[in-house]
Amino acid sequence: MNETTEPPAVKLTGLTKSFGANRVVQPLDLEIRQGEFFSILGPSGCGKTTLMRMITGFETPTGGSVELDGKNVDAVSTKSRDLNMLFQSYALFPHLSVYENVAFELRVRRTAKREIDTRVREALELVRLGAFAERKPAELSGGQRQRVALARAVVGRPAVVLLDEPLGALDQKLRKEMQFELKRMQREVGITFIYVTHDQEEALTMSDRIAVMSEGRVLQVASPTEIYDEPASRFVATFIGSCNILDGVVDAQGTGVVVPGVGAVPALVPAGAVPGSGVALAIRPERMSMRAVGASATVDGVRATLVERAFLGDEWTFHVRLETGAVMTVSVPSGETAAELGSIADGAAVVLSWSAAAARVLPAEASATAPASAPATSALKGAAA
Ligand SMILES: Nc1ncnc2c1ncn2[C@@H]1O[C@H](COP(=O)(O)OP(=O)(O)O)[C@@H](O)[C@H]1O
Ligand SMILES: [Mg+2]
């Protein structure tokens, strides 16, 4: 097949789902490419699982359609769709060996014995459990059981594997290891993975592309770097990584931004911005710089007061309060500059600066769907209150 004419692995058109009067997936269009590691990222309850279940056919859409590899599957049962789903609760058969757990589906399908053996051994090699074929699930660690479940999901070589928060039950260290492992495995088998998570770091680590979801809507589909550097909305900016938001107004010339109570601040205003219109400026903490100043000195930058700092090993994080009362976060990689800043006393006057390119201008949408606007990193939780 010619690559340029290859149909998407999954194509959703106007797909929507209501439970009674409650519409949990809003009409949604999405294309997932062949061989892609595609993540669906959003807070708990935003409709991720419901969306996955409509792709698999476990759930009947209220409207819209699903295509797999260019073919409409609305009338095709789950069993006959060329996909497999890995759930968070990956129940293995406790009385069967690892080998038989992985072979189970192929046996049900009456695959030839020699073929089963080849495929099961390949799948176990893929998840690096070749030496564990004869063990029972109870004789494995949580991470190993997870790998068995993954081998079972890919052994039938489906075109698409859907993974719904599969690492949720693992501890933090194992999760991190498995993130890299999953990505490696996906590359090796070349199967399209659709990965559901509420963990932004997980999505950034593994994905070719990410769809950010909120309240049943897909807000942005882009690569991890685009999602981080060019968030399309306030919700995406604050949900992915930590981000300072300043509410402002486009100036009379339409070329700058004025923040009430602060004044003109650096920002790259898109051409055609309407003077006087409200905007939100999104500035990543690592793209802001800070220096100490005498309280009466004239300064080029935004005045603030240092409220609190935390040393995180690889970086320092500072909370500063603007004269408007807004609290912002500045992070500085460890080193001489950071050490110097770290010796500034709480309550001292500082000046913040950033380049125009660092301040992304976003529409000043109502922030009802955004998470609480605390820019705090976890180490400083509560400090911004
Ligand atoms: N079978 C169902 N009946 C009624 N409401 C449901 C059902 N399944 C999910 N929901 C509701 O749909 C919304 C989205 O749920 P879900 O898709 O599980 O979200 P997520 O996976 O993102 O956490 C939630 O408000 C949930 O309560
Ligand atoms: Mg879910």
Description:
The chain is of the alpha+beta class. The chain folds into two domains: 3-228, P-loop containing nucleotide triphosphate hydrolases (Rossmann fold, 3-Layer(aba) Sandwich); 231-380, Nucleic acid-binding proteins (OB fold (Dihydrolipoamide Acetyltransferase, E2P)), CATH 2.40.50. It is built from nine helices and 20 strands. The chain has a six-stranded mixed β-sheet, with helices on both faces. Strands 13-12-11-14-20 form a five-stranded antiparallel β-sheet. The protein is elongated, with a radius of gyration of 25 Å. The model is unreliable at 367-385 (pLDDT under 50). Magnesium ion binds at residues 48-49, 164. Keywords: ATP-binding, Cell membrane, Membrane, Nucleotide-binding, Translocase, Transport. Belongs to the ABC transporter superfamily. Spermidine/putrescine importer (TC 3.A.1.11.1) family. The complex is composed of two ATP-binding proteins (PotA), two transmembrane proteins (PotB and PotC) and a solute-binding protein (PotD).
Radius of gyration: 25 Å
What would the CATH topology of the largest domain be? Rossmann fold
Number of domains: 2
Shape: elongated
CATH superfamily of the largest domain: P-loop containing nucleotide triphosphate hydrolases
Instruction: Identify the bound ligands.
Output: adenosine-5'-diphosphate, magnesium ion
Mean pLDDT: 89
Pattern of helices and strands: EEEHEEEHHHEHEHEEHHEEEEEEEEHEE
Domain ABC transporter: 10-240
Family: Belongs to the ABC transporter superfamily. Spermidine/putrescine importer (TC 3.A.1.11.1) family.
Subunit structure: The complex is composed of two ATP-binding proteins (PotA), two transmembrane proteins (PotB and PotC) and a solute-binding protein (PotD).
Keywords: ATP-binding, Cell membrane, Membrane, Nucleotide-binding, Translocase, Transport
